[in-house]
Design goal:
The chain is an alpha/beta fold. It has 3 domains: about 50-335, 3-Layer(aba) Sandwich (Rossmann fold); about 445-510, Luciferase, Domain 3 (Luciferase, domain 3), CATH 2.30.38; about 510-635, ANL, C-terminal domain (GMP Synthetase, Chain A, domain 3), CATH 3.30.300.30. The chain contains 20 helices and 29 strands. The strands form 8 sheets. It has a 7-stranded mixed beta sheet with strand order 5-4-17-16-18-19-20, with helices on both faces. A 7-stranded mixed beta sheet has the order 12-11-8-6-7-14-15, with helices on both faces. Strands 21-22-23-24 form a 4-stranded antiparallel beta sheet.
Length: about 650
Amino acid sequence: MDDESGVESHPRNGRTVDPPPAFTDQANVTAAEAAAFAEDWPDCWDEAGEMLDWADAYGTVFESGDGNGRWFPDGRLNASVNCVDRHLDERKTQAAIKWIGKRGERRTYTYLDLYHEVNEFAAGLRSLGIGEGDVVTLYMPAIPELPIAMLACARIGAPHNVVFAGFSAAALAERMERSESEFLVTCDGYYRRGNAIHQKNKADNARISTDHEVTDVVVVERLDDESVRLGEDDHAYDGLLADHRGEEVDPVSRAATDPLFLIYTSGTTGEPTGVRHTTGGYLAHAAWTSHAVLDLEPADTYWCSADIGWITGHTYLVYGPLSLGTTTLLYEGTPDHPEKDRVWEVIERNAVDVFYTAPTAIRAFMKWGTEHPDSHDLSSLRLLGSVGEPLNPSAWSWYYEHVGGEDCPIVDTWWQTETGAILLSTLPGVDAMKPGSAGPALPGIDVTVVGPTGAPATATEGGRLAVTKPWPGMPLDLETDGEGDDWRYVTEDVARIDEDGYVTVLGRLDDTVAVGNHRLGTMELESAIADVEGVAEAAIVDVRDGEAENTIYAFVSTDERHECEQRLRDRITDSVERTIGPFAVPEAFVFTPELPKTRSGKLMRRLLKDIANDGEFGDTSALRNPEIVGEIESALERM
Ligand code: PRX
């Protein structure tokens, strides 16, 4: 597909790829089922509700009325029963969680093991006085105690509030204050690239820095470090379990509309905003999309490489796969340690059936080279998924060819912390894939694009992506516009919808750049650059040069195989001219080994903007690779 200039043909030139027939033959959802599902909103979502076990069956699927309406309003259920208890009859000895620790540890929890530990920990939490409605903050890396604590909270009806382990003490304190959470479960520490991170110290500092009262702290002991001492209000996790050995806790039945958990959005700008997801609608949406989009089966070993601290980990590492009785893999390490073939080794060794990751990871794998996936047997894979950013066509092709062996469909899934679960994606056994485009709205979901005034925009212009009917995974307190047929949730994403209903996300509203009279999505421009051979990733930034017009800078990280910069620049120019137009070619190029990324893997465009504008750059504590800042500054000076 590459031509001589190294520029890939663009998805809008019409490349589509049909799902492999062998996949279609076994897919969880057929074309006929999808068509039938799409027909009668909202009752189609009864099929998702029926995937769950209810303590009190619901009579109504969706009740409009107050605000955004309510899903399964008269039903009651418990999420831990759905993720654990109900699998015991058939899957007692099957692995529920397979954990691969950072120091080579391996632990497998069968569904029966999970049942025991969730119950014992739920009894432990109860003994601390934690009850229905109390918010429990969980501040741990990818260790099994994290999903166990989530399920134990769910069992007693206490909403959990998972805070990403890499966040600072200040960020933890802020999230505990905002959620009025008085209880914390953390660990003494963990290892990162060989160094011990003292998580408990961060938790203690968070407690000191706030007036907000934190009454009890439970500590999972992970480090062999005598210096970590438990204080008066601290409880050792193992001690609590031992005190409640063999106890069973009656699951608290929750209204479908009661919150299952809170999560703060991971934006790179602005204040953290809490989102509350429901017990019934969220879980039904998580289960249905895991079945229909990720095509999960109980017999599968499934790996979602996201951190549980983000929504993807909540929905597609914990609640989705466990509600279906699947084996979910929890991997604590980094993808390039001990070697850059680590991910492929884990897939081969565990015979992973379905792998779900992010474009930023796929582009890193590409940069490391095909020899790594090529040296492993990846034939266990049946389906590949992507989430978090647009998957540019060259990354799509690399993933399809070198990881999937052209036998696995790719689902490029669009959704958000706010949506709770997937809203846009191809159905893997039904729809053709268009590399670069996320795909159509799922059956039962309706989307459109709207212009600046809120009026529908034409497909070619593009506009803000808006969801025009409520969906089950909708959170409580979602900010929406209009009522009845005018109801909609308008996102900050700018998108275009083609004649087949496929949505291409062009960028965030806050991530567009002005080029002459045009507003251009940074993602669109970045994708055109990233598709050039020799380029790993690109970031577009708008630089204000005194009173003069804006200048567009392209920060480009390159492949390990070093190239002549001028040749690369020519190829990029050619690609941008061909896919967007000559007006969009950036005025300046800065070549750098890496781009600055937050710990959640999001590009920190604001920081690049500040550096390029010669301004003061603010807080860089969210950066995973702060050392790159100096390198970029000196590259700019050399220009
Ligand atoms: O801009 C979209 C982008 O990620 C945003 C949501 O981020 P967050 O709430 O952190 O949740 C990430 C995981 C669900 C969206 O508004 N995004 C997510 N998936 C895609 C995407 N952009 C393009 N294509 C996707 N598949």
